[in-house]
Design goal:
By secondary structure, the chain is mainly α. It has two domains: 14-69; 85-336, Glycerol uptake facilitator protein. Helices cover 73% and strands 0% of the residues. It is built from eleven helices and no strands. It has helices at 4-68, 71-75, 94-115, 121-139, 145-153, 159-190, 203-211, 220-241, 248-273, 285-288, 300-336. Helix 3 (94-115) runs parallel beside helix 6, helix 5 crosses helix 11 and helix 8 (220-241) packs parallel to helix 11 (300-336). The longest helix is centred in the N-terminal third of the chain and has 65 residues, at 4-68.
């Protein structure tokens, strides 16, 4: 009887020990199933996400294709402030500072042209760089209707801002001419200088051309083309400088270099190939208006128009057209090279 008791005692112990692994195995199976279910759910979610991604790419491709299908519309799109118009421009006092800056800047540029002369491009480049750097943050340093006309035509500035800038530039050139001419008149009256030896650099050329094209010796269209080509160079350099306007000195150096090259081109053509020793170019319609554009006397209306139209064609119309061509030439090159239009 004593031998049977340990056998019966061993049996329940064996049953208890064998029951535990079964429970753990079932738990492991359930956890494995839940993990597998979660992973399959995650795979389904990722699969759905991967299916949606190509749709987004397709939408982006269609947007890009829609932009590429309208290159002309994009080319003539407004690049400046879209909300600026005649009703909103005066709500911000910064326009007043910009107008005053254009008056001062154009006046200083005109003063350099009158005193140092247009036959000294090295003086012009250093003066132009300094003035451009001084007023750039205030108005953009147009200082020339050629630049403003190009900015308006390429839709970088609004029409009302462009008109205000041109008026300011004319006023600045007029103030400069009055100041310099005042000192010049005092010198003549005192007898210290002679009018035949000392003249205002660009004044005589403009007054000569204002009489008629024939009186100018047949060089009417040659001088007009000098103004036209010089305006294209200046406007093109200014448009390219807009890509570097974050660096003021870089911007000013590019703009000044464009003025230097335009003046150098005019000097070489004017003196070397045309044989004209006096100044026949100015490349600034605002300044040219102060150099005898409006004749003081004439024999009737016909004589007045005969004296006026050569000045308008040579020193206003063709330089303005050259400024527009220069800006559009820059935009065309930007389009072909894949660059964005700088404003």
């Amino acid at each position: 009887m004593a031998t049977k008791k340990p056998k019966t005692a061993k049996k329940p112990v064996a049953k208890k020990t064998s029951a535990k692994p079964k429970a753990t195995s079932t738990k492991a199976k359930t956890t494995a199933k839940s993990v597998a279910a979660k992973t399959t759910k995650k795979e389904k979610v990722t699969a759905k996400a991967t299916v949606k991604e190509p749709k987004v790419e397709a939408v982006e491709k269609t947007v890009v294709m829609s932009e590429k299908t309208h290159p002309v519309k994009e080319f003539f799109a407004r690049k400046g402030d879209k909300n600026e118009n005649i009703l909103t421009i005066f709500k911000d006092t910064r326009i007043i500072g910009a107008i005053i800056a254009e008056i001062i800047g154009t006046g200083l540029v005109t003063t350099i042209a009158l005193t140092l002369g247009l036959f000294n491009p090295l003086y012009m480049i250093f003066g132009y760089i300094g003035i451009t750097a001084a007023v750039f943050k205030l108005s953009g340093a147009h200082m020339n209707p050629i630049i403003t006309a190009g900015m308006m035509a390429s839709r970088r500035v609004s029409a009302i801002r462009g008109i205000l800038y041109i008026i300011a530039q004319i006023l600045g050139a007029w103030f400069s001419f009055m100041i310099v001419n005042g000192f010049y008149s005092v010198g003549l009256a005192s007898g210290n200088i002679d009018a035949t030896s000392t003249t205002l650099p660009a004044l005589t050329a403009a007054s000569d051309l204002a009489h008629s094209a024939e009186d100018f010796g047949g060089f009417f269209w040659a001088v007009t083309m000098i103004e036209f080509a010089g305006a294209i160079i200046m406007a093109f350099f200014y448009a390219r400088a807009l890509n570097y306007k974050r660096g003021v000195y870089t911007f000013a150096a590019i703009v000044g270099s464009g003025v230097f090259l335009a003046m150098l081109f005019a000097v070489v053509i004017n003196s070397t190939y045309l044989g004209i020793n006096n100044n026949t170019f100015i490349m600034n319609p605002a300044a040219s208006m102060m150099y005898g554009l409006l004749p003081s006397s004439a024999d009737g209306f016909d004589g007045l128009m005969a004296a006026l139209w050569p000045m308008l064609v040579t020193y206003v119309i063709f330089p303005v057209l050259g400024g527009i061509v220069g800006f559009y030439l820059s935009d065309i090159l930007s389009k072909f090279s894949g660059q964005e239009y700088a404003n």
